[in-house]
Amino acid sequence: MENKKRLPEGTETAAGDAIGFKPLYAQVRERLMRRLVEGEWVPGMLLPSEMVLARQLNVSQGTVRKALDSMTADNLLLRRQGRGTYVAEPEESRILFQFFRLSPDEGSPSFPDSRVLSTSAAAPTNTEKQQLGLDDTDEVIRIERIRSLAGEPILIETLTLPSNRFPDFDHLTIIPNNVYRLYSERWGITIGSAEERLKAIAASARDAAKLGCDPGEPLLLISRVARDLENRPVELRWSRCISRNIHYSVNLR
Amino acid sequence: MENKKRLPEGTETAAGDAIGFKPLYAQVRERLMRRLVEGEWVPGMLLPSEMVLARQLNVSQGTVRKALDSMTADNLLLRRQGRGTYVAEPEESRILFQFFRLSPDEGSPSFPDSRVLSTSAAAPTNTEKQQLGLDDTDEVIRIERIRSLAGEPILIETLTLPSNRFPDFDHLTIIPNNVYRLYSERWGITIGSAEERLKAIAASARDAAKLGCDPGEPLLLISRVARDLENRPVELRWSRCISRNIHYSVNLR
DNA sequence: CAGTGGTCTAGACCACGTT
DNA sequence: ACGTGGTCTAGACCACTGT
Questions:
Q1: The whole model's pTM is what?
Q2: Which residue of B74, B193, B218 is in closest CB contact with A218?
Q3: Can you list the domains of chain A with their CATH numbers?
Q4: Tens digits of per-residue pLDDT, B178-235?
Q5: Which CA-bearing residue is nearest the C1' of D13?
């Protein structure tokens, strides 16, 4: 029963290096992540079984399992007993659960409709440059849309995308409701995480007109930075929401 | 190498019962949770080592580890290599990280001061009865306080507690800033989780006066239901926050 | 040094889903 | 019947901590 030595491959350092060692399962996770990022495995695909991966990577099944479990915890994979391990898909139900935190005060959450007001290309603002990691030569795409629940407009939002990550965006004839599925299918960009900041603001005259509420009415402002699997920011989102009959929910554990 | 049969103890059912089996590690977790809930293990205490627990419970070390890992993931325990496993304490730094999601727009988050405006006992409202699971004979304690960051009042909040879970609350001379530590030390109640709902509202005349802002100014309303280790609701919190220079942050993963 | 949790392996059986 | 992931065990070595 030979015991494999820890050899962080690709990161050769001096022999006496006392720090910076990664557990084997973390190295396995990184290898599997690379296969996801590079598009070798696409959403919906069935992965090789644990035993096969273990032989491929020359580690034990238990170590592969620990890596797969960690990726499953991050909603990147889906495991089903008796069937296998699949690459997670950006379906509405999962997006709804993972990235959409608004629910009606009475009743269960559902995915809102959306109507695009405008799409345009522009030079990024300073904030956009900073949050998306762009420089002066870069360009962004801005999309403004209104989203409704049960026919009632509930929020107006602006999406900002870096043009270089979304080539030919302007060739699109329609922009679907579920943009994360679009990012995945059209450009192979998987949204893996996001940070949101919430504030209460007064409705601007413009937003009020679009939403059909009074100017100055309190709106919930949700600012999102969404990141891809390599943790690079790929979308800014700035939603202004009428929270009269709707709330944003958070679980603290 | 005998293989232990799964015998969900304490839940005897018909022999042919095909459903409702719990994995061993989940049963171990429940046993350990009972020792926490019943106060055998108190915050800060060093738990027996994995090997000792494994012998006590007649399972392998790996199974104990899976239970301990799961409790550590829920912030109930703290594990330190070389030292041991400790019961988590409600210190400010942990509360700040786990239960306090407000940060200044510029700078790092910190725990706000608080000044109590009033404490009173009363009959619960219908909402309170429903959310705390009380009936007509029960009574609640209400605390209203203002919290400040860097001298600036940022929010006013109302706490509602069921009197029967907090006997002699009115004997308290002072109510400390960190009430979760108070709940733990005085009544042995550990807050394990909470749900929050956020909305944007207009400041009432009364809140505006107390906070020193304009009536009608948009405020972030945060409604919290906090639960103990047995998942029973033990605190309602209704915070109205000036979010001009402050935001509520959420990570979506 | 001894003791702790952290990692890794190997092999077994179980529950589930497909064939 | 077969292959999958899920659970459980046992034993080994490593890294960290305090003596």
A1: 0.90
A2: B218
A3: 24-87 (1.10.10.10), 92-248 (3.40.1410.10)
A4: 999 999 999 999 999 999 999 999 999 999 999 999 999 999 999 999 999 999 999 9
A5: A3
